[in-house]
């Protein structure tokens, strides 16, 4: 299939992205975000799930949980290219919300087929969902899980590194039985579910490990033996979404640092006058533009050329992780002494970027998988 012009980023996608930017500028400005999530600077502070629920309700009113849900199930049926634009704005604002995890869960549900139609209807109506499919080593690979299904269909075990677990209403749990890997919908308030908050670096998210003790799932989304297929099908979309978040956060780091360089005066000149500041800023811009192009290319491939989706998504996640690391480093460095303080807003984006880098595999991991996929194909055709 021929890919469309401009990756298929049409007028509707532009409207969605523009609306998101305006809403988040008005209701998630850096000053307000810092007051919300960084009020307590104590190193011994308790792990918290802090977010603006009023802003979340505004997102629901705009139908953002429904953007990827097909129209026949009450959603808008938008492509991943449009959703990448929305997520880029979430990253730019470092907005604490369960929207990103819900979008990722939506693509897993879509890959499950008709069995997940009811869940997709609920997501379109505003249900927030996160994925609970990682083992204690942090592996997301389909065969790795510590949750099992007994003969009565009850789930037991622990799912680790569950993102925004304190904000969502339900979980898609990956579990193994004698018949194979399946995916199950679990309500967070179901009997036998215990959510234990983790202490993490990122102040704009919460993370938890979820302990399940003979939990009766609300629904079987992918029958045993079919769960791995659904996860593999959804992974390119998930990687693209996380990469879009990093690109958006990186853009905030670039623009904020450039503005500081224009206004901070040292040696009777704005520090942006000096090449030691100019050159890193240009390098930030170049890396971000390259990563952004790969993100939208990956989203377009997912929408129009699915056979290329995995390779494109892994390239995007690798490039975005590299750009995030570089922009985070330089944004702190170029803010000088203030950049290392708790009061400086830069720390919020720095920590979000570090968290995103390793989420679903950092740049080194993505390139290792890419090498295995591409070299394996070459060897198979040789």
UniProtKB/TrEMBL annotation:
The keyword Cell wall biogenesis/degradation does not apply. The keyword Flavoprotein applies. Residues 242-375 form the Acyl-CoA dehydrogenase/oxidase C-terminal domain. InterPro entries: Acyl-CoA_Oxase/DH_mid-dom_sf, AcylCo_DH-like_C, AcylCo_DH/oxidase_C, AcylCoA_DH/ox_N, AcylCoA_DH/ox_N_sf, AcylCoA_DH/oxidase_NM_dom_sf. Signal peptide: none annotated. Residues 11-105 form the Acyl-CoA dehydrogenase/oxidase N-terminal domain. Pfam families: Acyl-CoA_dh_1 (PF00441), Acyl-CoA_dh_N (PF02771). Gene3D superfamilies: Acyl-CoA dehydrogenase/oxidase, N-terminal domain (1.10.540.10), Butyryl-CoA Dehydrogenase, subunit A, domain 2 (2.40.110.10), Butyryl-CoA Dehydrogenase, subunit A, domain 3 (1.20.140.10). Keywords: FAD, Flavoprotein, Oxidoreductase. CDD domains: ACAD. Its cofactor is FAD. Belongs to the acyl-CoA dehydrogenase family. This is Acyl-CoA/acyl-ACP dehydrogenase.
């Amino acid at each position: 299939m021929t890919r469309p012009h401009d990756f298929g980023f049409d007028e509707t996608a532009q409207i969605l992205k523009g609306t998101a930017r305006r809403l988040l500028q008005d209701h998630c400005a850096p000053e307000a975000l810092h007051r919300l999530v960084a009020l307590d600077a104590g190193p011994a502070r308790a792990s918290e799930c802090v977010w603006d629920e009023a802003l979340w309700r505004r997102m629901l009113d705009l139908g953002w949980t429904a953007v990827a849900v097909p129209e026949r199930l009450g959603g808008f049926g938008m492509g991943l290219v449009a959703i990448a634009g929305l997520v880029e704005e979430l990253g730019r604002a470092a907005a604490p919300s369960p929207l990103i995890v819900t979008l990722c869960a939506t693509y897993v549900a879509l890959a499950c087929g008709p069995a997940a139609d009811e869940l997709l209807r609920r997501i379109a109506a505003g249900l927030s969902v996160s994925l609970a499919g990682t083992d204690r080593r942090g592996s997301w690979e389909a065969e790795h899980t510590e949750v099992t299904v007994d003969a009565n269909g009850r789930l037991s075990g622990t799912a680790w590194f569950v993102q925004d677990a304190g904000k969502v209403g339900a979980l898609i749990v990956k579990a193994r039985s004698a018949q194979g890997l399946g995916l199950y919908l679990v309500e967070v308030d179901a009997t036998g579910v215990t959510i234990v908050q983790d202490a993490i670096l990122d102040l704009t998210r919460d993370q938890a490990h979820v302990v399940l003790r003979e939990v009766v799932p609300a629904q079987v989304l992918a029958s045993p033996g079919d769960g791995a297929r659904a996860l593999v099908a959804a992974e390119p979309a998930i990687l693209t979404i996380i990469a879009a978040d990093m690109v958006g956060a990186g853009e905030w780091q670039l623009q904020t640092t450039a503005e500081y360089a224009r206004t901070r005066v040292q040696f009777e000149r704005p520090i942006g006058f000096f090449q030691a500041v100019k050159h890193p800023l240009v390098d930030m811009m170049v890396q971000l533009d390259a990563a952004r192009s790969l993100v939208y290319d990956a989203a377009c491939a997912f929408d129009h050329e699915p056979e290329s989706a995995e390779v494109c998504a892994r390239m995007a996640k690798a490039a975005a992780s590299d750009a995030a690391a570089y922009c985070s480093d330089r944004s702190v460095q170029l803010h000088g002494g203030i950049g290392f303080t708790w009061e400086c807003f830069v720390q919020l984006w720095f920590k979000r970027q570090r968290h995103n880098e390793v989420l679903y595999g950092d740049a080194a991991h993505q390139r290792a998988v890419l090498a295995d996929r591409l070299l394996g194909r070459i060897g198979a055709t040789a």
